[in-house]
Structures are given as structure tokens and as C-alpha cells.
Specification:
Elements lengths: L6 E5 L1 E2 L2 E2 L1 H17 L3 E7 L6 H6 L4 E6 L8 H15 L3 E5 L2 H14 L3 E5 L1 E4 L6 E7 L4 E5 L6 E5 L16 E5 L30 E5 L6 H13 L3 E4 L1 H5 L20 E5 L5 H4 L7 E6 L6 H4 L2 E4 L2 H17 L1
Helix pairs in contact: 3-4, 5-9
The structure holds flavin-adenine dinucleotide.
The site of flavin-adenine dinucleotide (FAD) has 26 residues, from helix 6, helix 7, strand 16 and helix 9.
């Protein structure tokens, strides 16, 4: 019988604050820990992250572990895998949660391999099986066309969780918890890569992954000019513009706007899909959206099977009318 206990959240930091995904993981981790009758801990890894320990407690953790080392300033696979392997062996969590971010996607499988366990990536629901007390890990499969539930008989049960799939708890600064510092003991020679330069991507307006509204265009938009109309609507709705693969491949919009299997996964409240067919590869990036509205001239287009509301018609006629109605409503 495994001695593993408790739920641990790998706490990512963004621009000196807890990343949104971390607060979401803490909210979900709190519920799992309560269902197991065990503790929720957070692990902060970095170079100057100790000031955020109390913040993880305010968002639900019972304990915050902190590992600081100048070698951990930037995420690097070698250093973070070494540190997290040590943490997992020393603290033996039963469940380890990470974000489905570039870091989580890199770290989780490598860690699982080293610890002789499994990692389920891109979960959208997590729960404790009332009988077995094992973690039920739900994730979309077949390009988002079905959901599958996984369990693992090995500990730690590692899962990465999709952004906005879970809700954070209300921040409570009065929550009490314990902060524990651990040593990194890193051997610099074990780190085979160096960060030479960091280049931030300039984003005008709302970031696609964080947007509550996404207006996405497909091949049917026909060129870069058409995307200006999508931008106008996105701006009015305080949202972001996305795209299917063809507009990116054709250079109509930057590659970073691609939504889908090989692009970004978005989960806004409202996804307006304009002149895109709704291929399974595209839907893999937006099937978690709360409300999909489709505009397409082909009534047989797959997107109408996924959409809550749909308009069959030429987007060049439908979108201006839609945008002017939005303007009218916003002006009221
Ligand atoms: C390994 C792999 C990974 C992939 N990854 C991705 C990915 O991440 N994201 C992605 O999007 N795709 C991805 N693809 C490509 C994917 O298979 C589809 O080819 C792509 O999503 C189609 O884009 P689309 O819907 O814009 O174009 P189409 O399928 O050509 O659809 C265009 C739609 O526009 C409609 N239309 C045309 N003119 C008008 C008009 N005037 N008014 C209204 N409607 C109009 C048409 O009726 C049609 O439904 C991937 C493919 C592979 C093989």
C-alpha cells in the first residue's frame, strides 16, 4: 500500500504573481483534498517566489513549500525536473496537479517517467472516486469528440489541468497555513541548457488564452482584410481574435492566433466562429467554450453540430449586421 498522502499543486508564477491557472488548481485541489480528508499543499519553485507562499494559502493551500535558487529563475527542463523529482520523493503527494501550460506539458510526463507513474494531460474535470479514493481524471479525446476518464494505480497521480476548467476559491487573506522552505541542492553541471534571451510577444488588447470572448475566422474569410472586421467585433466585445489553421498558414494573421490541436486551447464564455468549418482539429482547441456561435454559408458545416447558436449565410452580410447590433446594444 502506498504511503503517499495529500494533494499538491505545482504553483506557476506569472509576472511576479500567482498565475491564474495556479489559483484554479488550488480551488480544485482544495475540493479533492477535502474529499480525501487530507492536506492541500502548494510548491513554489523559482528564484524569488517566497513572497507568494502566503498567497497560495489565501487561495486554499494548507501548506506552502518554497524552493528558491538563482538557478531556478527561469523554467528549464533539467533543473525543474530534478527539483520536482526530489520534492515528489521527499513529500510523497498522492496527487500532483499542474497547469496544462508549456511548463506543465513539459514537466508532467518527464516527472511521471522518473517516478514510475503516469500523467494525464489536459484534464477538464477531476474528482475522487468515492469507493477506491483514486483520482478520476476526465479529458477530451478524439479531437474533443468524446471524453475519457482515466485512473492510475500508481502514486503520485499526476494530472495537468486546462486553463479555466476549474474555479478558484475566493481569496481569503486571513487563512492560516504553514510555509516551509526546502533546499534545491542543484548541481549546476546537471543543467544542460542556458536561457540566452527572453523575447516577449507583443499582444495588442486581450490575450487569446485569457479572453472571455473570442472571434475566430476561417478560410472562408478569404484574406487579411476580412480579419479587420473580426477585430472590430472582438474589440467591441473586449475579446480577442483567433483563427483556424488556413488563415495562419496563408499569412493572413500571425501563427499565434491559431486555435486547435496544433494551436491554442481557448475556453471563453463566447466563441464566435466565422467562416470556419469546425474540423475536429480546430474543435480540439475550442470544444471547452461555454457558448459557440457559428456563421457559415454551408448548413451542413460541422460547426453547426457544435454551436449553440448558428446563422446560415455569407459572413460578409451577417457580420456587419451583427456588429452594428452589438454597437447599438452597447450604446444603450
Ligand atoms: C495534424 C493536423 C493538425 C491540425 N491542427 C489544426 C489546428 O490546430 N487548428 C485548425 O484550425 N486546423 C488544424 N488542422 C487543419 C484542419 O484539418 C482543417 O483543415 C482546418 O481546421 C480547416 O480550416 P477552416 O475551417 O478555416 O477551413 P475549411 O474547412 O475550408 O472551411 C471553410 C468554411 O468557410 C465557409 N465559408 C466559405 N466562404 C464563406 C462565406 N462567405 N460566408 C460564410 N461561410 C463561408 C465554408 O462553408 C467552410 O465551412 C490540422 C490538420 C492536421 C492534419
Amino acid at each position: 500500500m502506498s504511503q503517499a498522502k495529500g494533494v499538491m499543486v505545482f504553483a506557476e508564477v506569472a509576472e511576479g504573481k500567482l498565475a491564474a491557472i495556479t489559483t484554479e488548481l488550488l480551488g480544485c485541489g482544495r475540493k479533492l483534498a477535502d474529499d480525501l480528508g487530507e492536506e492541500l499543499s502548494a510548491i513554489l519553485v523559482g528564484s524569488e517566489v517566497s513572497s507568494l507562499a502566503q498567497e497560495t494559502i489565501a487561495f486554499g493551500a494548507d501548506k506552502a513549500y518554497v524552493i528558491e535558487d538563482p538557478l531556478l529563475q527561469d523554467y528549464q527542463t533539467d533543473s525543474y525536473v530534478l527539483v520536482m523529482e526530489k520534492v515528489a520523493r521527499q513529500l510523497a503527494p498522492q496527487i500532483l496537479l499542474m497547469g496544462q501550460t508549456s511548463i506543465g506539458r513539459d514537466l508532467a510526463p518527464r516527472l511521471a517517467f522518473r517516478l514510475g507513474t503516469a500523467a494525464t494531460l489536459d484534464c477538464i474535470e477531476l474528482a475522487i472516486d468515492p469507493e477506491s479514493k483514486r483520482l478520476l481524471q476526465t479529458k477530451p479525446v478524439y479531437g474533443g469528440n468524446a471524453w475519457a476518464i482515466f485512473t492510475s494505480e500508481f502514486d503520485p497521480q499526476i494530472a495537468t489541468v486546462r486553463a479555466k476548467a476549474m474555479s478558484p476559491l475566493e481569496r481569503d487573506a486571513s487563512r492560516q497555513g504553514e510555509v516551509i522552505t526546502l533546499e534545491a541542492d542543484l548541481d549546476p553541471s546537471a543543467i544542460r541548457t542556458r536561457v540566452l534571451e527572453k523575447v516577449s510577444q507583443e499582444v495588442e488588447g486581450v490575450r487569446l488564452e485569457a479572453a472571455e470572448v473570442v472571434v475566430s475566422g476561417g478560410r472562408g474569410i478569404g484574406g487579411p482584410e476580412g480579419f479587420k472586421q473580426l477585430e472590430e467585433l472582438a474589440k467591441l466585445l473586449k475579446g480577442a481574435v483567433g483563427a483556424s489553421r488556413p488563415p495562419c498558414d496563408n499569412g493572413w494573421v500571425p501563427d499565434v492566433l491559431q486555435v486547435g490541436l496544433t494551436g491554442k486551447v481557448v475556453t471563453p464564455e463566447l466563441y464566435i466562429a466565422v467562416a470556419l468549418s469546425g474540423s475536429s482539429q480546430h474543435m480540439a482547441g475550442c470544444s471547452g467554450c461555454k457558448n459557440i456561435v457559428a456563421i457559415n454559408k454551408d448548413p451542413e458545416a460541422n460547426i453547426f453540430r457544435e454551436a449553440r447558436f448558428g446563422v446560415v449565410g455569407d459572413w460578409k452580410k451577417v457580420l456587419p449586421a451583427f456588429t452594428s447590433k452589438v454597437k447599438e446594444l452597447l450604446a444603450e
